[in-house]
């Protein structure tokens, strides 16, 4: 089966700052992918490249088999794109914006749009500029769904939405995905929303390092172990003044370390036993490792780092 | 599809169009009153001598009105598109970017032409009430370059607003100002007459030039 999106040796930079040097991944049809990463890792840039709003410095991106910087109108008609911030023509009303988009899409279904927008209990003449961010998101999502696209690209759909509107957004999306053979590629800062929603997550890190996994696998395998800092009176723990890099070089299985005043949190995909063994070889008390329960958000921050 | 774009543009500039049209009509009324005043204060032969032989312009107020209208139409059309880069919404539609850009331009140019036509017809009518055919001809030949200046201002402003690169924005503004200035030189009434056909060329060239900033906006390379 041909991938919906194929990114091959993608390289992009702003000035001399490289965002990606060799990014590679492919999205299979019919799945929901979440692109996760901290601010500035290039999530929006990637969406812009995929939709041809930016040309990459090198490498190739294809969407439905066409080069992303030369998408034909026929392929664009198969893609629903949500711009970051729920960008919409705010000078139009609910009815006017539906009439604007409808002629461009052959599969346009205005019943879908009005089913979603009617939940807002606003008159069809209500201007978008007079709506809250959440209300606007519902209108924009309604427009995307009415297109009935095969591929949905949602750039930071959660921005500016409260918990209720985020839930509504995801519920509407689930309903839409039930129609089958739809692929969704979304970015978000709110990792909890991904739980029970996405099939696979793509972690994007600075420099373009990438990890693709299922959320279930990530939750099961990624772990945090806490190790106390020695107070200097002979109590066992991490010696005061020890450098982060020393432990990272001693334990290559560590993904990240968060340093607190009294303890260090060590994040790894390895088991506690493997980590303890590696610490023991450096005369550190691996036996004192305490497993820490992680929420999905804790795990995400543990993996990507706090800053 | 083109109707959808026309409708969208209409929503953006309908109020501005009404206000600007009202302003143009108000200026024409003022010109009518001041022309009539010339004939009340002086004998008709003196007024005719001043206007037809000495080249006095009694409708000078009309010189910069098209210019302001052209700039305003471009701003009302393209500023909402460029704020938050909303133009991406139109450029993601399943039609070619050239189609999108030129449809926008057709709306702006049409609205501007209506205003220019109101100016020229109004001026012709007012002049015809007080002067012979020669007076109408001179006044229209004098005002026509001014309306062309408004078209140049509209196109120059559109070029500058749509351009994503700030340096090229400045270049487009300079080009727009240069072309506009060409039509606003202080010359004798009707002096542009023989060269009007040639003076249309810069405007015709600026119309397809709008595709350059639009395509640069659509397929940007930042690196």
Named at the architecture level, the CATH assignment of the largest domain in chain A is 3-Layer(aba) Sandwich
* Count of DSSP H/I helices of chain A: 10
Strand order of the largest sheet of chain A: 6-7-8-3-9-10
**Which regions of chain B are unreliable across 5 or more consecutive residues at pLDDT < 50?**
none
Q: Tell me roughly what share of residues is in helical segments of chain B.
A: over 70%
- Give the overall pLDDT of chain B as a whole number: 90
Oligomer: heterodimer
- Binned, the helix content of chain A reads 25-40%
Please specify the SSE layout and strand pairing.
The complex is a heterodimer of chains A (307) and B (223).
Chain A: E1 5-14, E2 17-27, E3 32-36, H1 43-50, E4 58-63, E5 66-67, H2 73-76, E6 79-82, H3 94-101, H4 110-117, H5 133-147, E7 151-154, H6 163-177, E8 183-187, E9 200-204, E10 210-214, H7 215-221, E11 223-228, H8 244-250, E12 254-259, E13 263-268, H9 272-281, E14 290-292, H10 296-304
Parallel strand pairs in A: 3-8, 3-9, 6-7, 7-8
Antiparallel strand pairs in A: 1-2, 1-4, 4-5, 9-10, 11-13, 11-14, 12-13
Helix pairs in contact in A: 4-5, 5-6
Chain B: H1 2-41, H2 44-53, H3 65-82, H4 87-91, H5 97-130, H6 133-162, H7 166-182, H8 196-209, H9 211-218
Helix pairs in contact in B: 1-3, 1-5, 3-5, 3-6, 5-6, 5-9, 6-7, 6-8
């Amino acid at each position: 089966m041909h991938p919906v999106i194929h990114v091959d040796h993608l390289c992009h930079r702003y000035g001399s700052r490289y965002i990606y040097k060799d990014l590679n991944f492919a999205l299979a049809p019919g799945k929901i992918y979440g692109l996760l990463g901290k601010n500035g890792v290039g999530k929006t840039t990637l969406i812009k490249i995929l939709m041809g709003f930016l040309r990459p410095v090198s490498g190739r991106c294809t969407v439905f088999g066409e080069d992303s910087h030369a998408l034909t109108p026929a392929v664009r008609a198969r893609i629903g794109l949500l711009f970051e911030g729920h960008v919409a023509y705010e000078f139009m009303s609910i009815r006017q914006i539906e009439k604007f988009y409808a002629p461009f899409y052959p599969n346009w279904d205005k019943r879908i749009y009005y089913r979603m927008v009617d939940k807002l209990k606003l008159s069809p003449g209500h201007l978008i500029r007079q709506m809250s961010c959440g209300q606007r998101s519902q209108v924009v999502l309604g427009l995307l769904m009415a297109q009935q696209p095969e591929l949905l690209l949602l750039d930071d759909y959660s921005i500016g939405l409260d918990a209720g509107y985020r839930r509504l957004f995801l519920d509407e999306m689930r309903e839409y995905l039930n129609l089958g053979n739809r692929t969704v590629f979304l970015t978000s800062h709110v990792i909890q929303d991904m739980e029970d929603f996405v099939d696979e997550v793509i972690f994007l890190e600075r420099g373009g390092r990438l990890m693709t996994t299922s959320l279930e696998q990530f939750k099961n395998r990624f772990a945090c172990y806490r190790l106390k800092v020695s107070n200097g009176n002979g109590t066992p723990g991490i010696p005061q003044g020890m450098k982060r890099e020393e432990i990272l070089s001693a334990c290559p299985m560590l993904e990240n370390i968060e340093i607190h005043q009294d303890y260090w949190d060590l994040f790894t995909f390895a088991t506690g036993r493997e980590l303890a063994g590696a610490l023991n070889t450096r005369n550190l008390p691996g036996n004192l490792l305490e497993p820490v329960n992680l929420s999905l958000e804790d795990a995400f921050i543990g993996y990507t780092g706090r800053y | 599809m083109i109707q959808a774009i026309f409708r969208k543009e209409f929503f953006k500039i309908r109020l501005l169009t009404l206000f600007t049209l009202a302003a143009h009509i108000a200026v024409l009324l003022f010109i009518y009153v001041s022309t009539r005043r010339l004939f009340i204060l002086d004998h008709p032969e003196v007024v005719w001598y001043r206007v037809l032989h000495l080249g006095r312009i009694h409708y000078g107020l009309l010189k910069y009105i098209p210019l302001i209208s052209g700039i305003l139409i471009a701003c009302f059309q393209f500023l909402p598109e460029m704020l938050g880069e909303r133009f991406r919404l139109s450029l993601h539609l399943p039609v070619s970017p050239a189609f999108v850009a030129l449809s926008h331009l057709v709306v702006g140019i049409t609205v501007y032409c209506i205003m220019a036509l109101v100016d020229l017809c109004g001026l012709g009518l007012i002049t015809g009430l007080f002067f012979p055919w020669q007076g109408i001809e001179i006044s229209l030949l004098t005002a026509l370059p001014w309306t062309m200046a408004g078209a140049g201002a509209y196109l120059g402003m559109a070029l500058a607003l749509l351009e994503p690169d700030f340096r090229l924005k400045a270049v487009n503004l300079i080009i727009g100002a240069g072309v506009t200035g060409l039509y606003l030189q202080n010359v004798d009434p009707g002096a542009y007459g023989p060269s009007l056909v040639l003076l249309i060329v810069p405007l015709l060239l600026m119309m397809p030039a709008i595709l350059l900033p639009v395509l640069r906006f659509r397929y940007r390379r930042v690196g």
